[in-house]
Specification:
2 helices; globular
């Protein structure tokens, strides 16, 4: 089943990013608030999360969106002292 999902993602979104980070992993599950996911760093700290998805398909799309967005080179900072 996992292989089928990965193949489908490649069809929709292309190959995974070239710059993979060792030890980082996504997890998803069904909870009281609906389907949820998190992204954990190699040190097991949660570095991103999402919750309240209505279906497993939607939570997997959410994970894939974050995965693709994380591969971009854009970093935007906000200066709290800027007018």
């Amino acid at each position: 089943m996992i292989r089928k999902l990965v193949t489908r993602w490649k069809d929709l979104f292309g190959a995974p990013p070239e710059r993979a980070v060792e030890g980082v992993r996504y997890s998803y599950w069904k909870g009281a608030a609906g389907w949820c996911w998190n992204l954990k760093a190699a040190n097991n700290e949660i570095i991103a999360q999402g919750e309240g998805y209505s279906s497993k398909a939607n939570v997997l799309r959410g994970i894939e969106t974050v995965r693709i967005a994380a591969a971009t080179d854009k970093v935007v900072g906000v200066d709290p002292l800027a007018p």
